[in-house]
């Protein structure tokens, strides 16, 4: 098995521009053709450099993965936002630039986020994914996530199913 030399660390102010770029590339790659174009473009537009800078400054749980001097992915995490799911921690987002997917970075970032939640005494973990995002579904299934709940997200009148994966 090949080891991938990457650094996973907390986001810093200097990362805001790179985070905006990763977010845009990852979201366009993951959701083009799933989330209606106008909604997707608006969602990406809200996550500009200043948004990321404010999130970092506010102390939001944001991990970044760097490879070869480039930020190639991120995860945001914290307390579970869905009371009906018996998990204390949640990974809100885990995204990589498309060129860096399938290389082991996502798995390492997931494990780092899960470990950090455990260090913060948040037991159990939930992650939501859109049901049409086959890549995300396969990723979370491969990591041992169990489908425990379903929900819906609406975009421009289009209702999309989302699935909650849970780890104990």
Walk me through what this model shows:
The chain is α+β, with helices and mostly antiparallel strands and 168 residues long. It has a single domain (7-167), classed as Aminopeptidase, CATH 3.40.630. The chain contains five helices and seven strands. A seven-stranded mixed sheet has the order 1-2-3-4-5-7-6, sandwiched between helices. A hairpin with a 2-residue loop joins strand 6 (146-155) and strand 7 (158-167). The radius of gyration is 15 Å and the shape is globular.
CATH-defined architecture: 3-Layer(aba) Sandwich
CATH superfamily heading: Gcn5-related N-acetyltransferase (GNAT)
- Runs in which pLDDT lies below 50 for 5 or more consecutive residues are none
Task: Please state the CA-atom Rg, rounded to the nearest Å.
Answer: 15 Å
The dominant shape is globular
The CATH class: Alpha Beta
User: Based on DSSP secondary structure assignment, what is the total number of beta strands?
Assistant: 7
Instruction: Please give the share of residues in helix.
Output: 25-40%
**SSE sequence, one letter per element:** EHHHEEEHEHEE
Mean pLDDT across the residues is 96
According to CATH, what is the topology? Aminopeptidase
- Summed up, the helix count is 5
How many discrete domains? 1
Quickly give the structural class: alpha+beta
Strand order, largest beta sheet: 1-2-3-4-5-7-6
Q: Tell me about the biggest sheet?
A: 7 strands, mixed
Through-space gap between termini: 27 Å
What proportion of the residues form beta strands (DSSP E)? 25-35%
Oligomer: single chain
